[in-house]
């Protein structure tokens, strides 16, 4: 794309995905609307340029904001289908991945009274006025990065909304338009309120999550409609787990569930020395930064988050600090059921990464203590195994059911040699794994992103 800087762009947004949760009514108690998030993407956008006053840029792949020459961007959002009060509305824009797209001033975003302008008709000479309240502004913006502006004060329900963007800097910024597809401007609208969880606890999540693409946004939308504790199975923020990777990719998507997330680290998180971006972002919820492994309880279940980046924590072998901690932790637990999660899978049919033998002693410790479920990521696909022993053989009496859920948002991988006890596989669908933790059993459900149909579910008793 050519570099074109503009200060106002216009986009009409249409519904692409929505997640809603219904809350049952008790006798004499009015129903409570659960939080629901709807994501709209641009169906029209343009910018204008005073150095080309009669030119229309409605089909351009780029939107510019600048003060020399003066360029303005116009965004138009059509919101429909909302049935509850808007509790949050966020505009998301993505800077172009070209040299010069970055700027010391990302622009000022204002509401507009004109909502009838045409994407293919607007020029500098006939541009609509940017005449409303200031909604927010962006400081320095980097190339190839998502940015978010809170527009809740303006987007209050169904209707059509126009937003203009201007810049006071002669070093303008360039954003992607709707023609780019995955990085088109987005409007993320949340309605209702989130009720406190009821019934059996839920553990939901995936691994291999946040990138510059759009699948992480789609899986985050799933989480918006599922209450409970969120887990991550490593590789939280691509490509390198830096502070900026978490800020730019994880925080605008899965980051809105940070307060209820209990993560585990992956190898990409350790591309940053000591996984400092990961530990600084999640804080106490990630455990001791020198370890990265910890445990907690949910209802009748003991939950263990382990660190399969073995070289970073003194190894995973028998007698290693982590393995010894795990055995002591499991021995001390009074819960009848146990689930563990980490990044590198002991068993997998994926062709990109083979089965990881280094975590074998951790699997053995879990098996010796009658654990029920292990969830991993690393291979970007979904796979479910039958209950198996630490050698991978079928064990219907004491075997642990393994899942690979590397479906959080990163590009999907192919399968290779299929493990004999692999029962379900899919490598075309991003989604999350939802575990409902009953008092002496569990139900698993693979939840696909909007527009996909693959599912997998079942129930198994604890040992």
From TrEMBL:
UniProt GO molecular function: acid phosphatase activity
Major localization class:
secreted
Q: Which InterPro entries match?
A: Calcineurin-like_PHP, CBM96, Metallo-depent_PP-like, PAPs-like
SUPFAM superfamilies assigned: Metallo-dependent phosphatases
Can the keyword Signal be found in this entry's annotation? Answer: yes
Residues making up the signal peptide according to the UniProt record: 1-35
Show the taxonomic lineage: Bacteria, Bacillati, Actinomycetota, Actinomycetes, Pseudonocardiales
Q: Which Pfam families does this chain map to?
A: CBM96 (PF24517), Metallophos (PF00149)
Give start and end of each Calcineurin-like phosphoesterase domain: 230-382
Query: What region holds the Carbohydrate-binding module family domain?
Result: 37-191
Keywords, in A-Z order: Secreted, Signal
Q: Which GO terms describe its cellular component?
A: extracellular region
Q: Where in the cell is it found?
A: Secreted
Which protein are we looking at? Calcineurin-like phosphoesterase
